[in-house]
Specification:
This protein is 38% helix and 11% strand. The chain has three helices and four strands; from the N terminus they run ββββααα. The chain is globular. The structure holds zinc ion. The site of zinc ion has 8 residues, from helix 1.
Length: 76
C-alpha cells in the first residue's frame, strides 16, 4: 500500500488525511481538527460560513484563527 503523506498547515505533522479548517483556509491533521472542534468559537465559525454560503459567498475564508490557537502554534 502506498501512502501519500501530506503536511498539516497548522502544526506541521505528517498525515494521510487533511481536512479544511472552519476558522481559516488551513488544511488540518486529525489533532488540529479536534482542537478546533473543542474551541468555544467553533460553532460560531460554522454558523458564519453557513450564512455566507446562503448569501452566495462561496469564497469566504473563515472568521480567522482565534488568537489562542495562533499563539499556541507560533511558539514552536
Ligand atoms: Zn496539525
Amino acid at each position: 500500500m502506498r501512502y501519500n503523506k501530506q503536511t498539516c498547515h497548522r502544526c506541521g505533522a505528517e498525515t494521510n488525511s487533511l481536512r479544511a479548517s472552519w476558522f481559516n483556509i488551513h488544511l488540518l491533521c486529525c489533532d488540529c481538527r479536534q482542537e478546533e472542534a473543542a474551541h468555544p468559537l467553533y460553532t460560531y465559525a460554522q454558523h458564519v460560513e453557513f450564512v455566507k454560503t446562503q448569501t452566495g459567498n462561496y469564497f469566504f475564508a473563515g472568521i480567522g484563527l482565534p488568537v489562542d490557537i495562533q499563539t499556541k502554534h507560533c511558539r514552536q
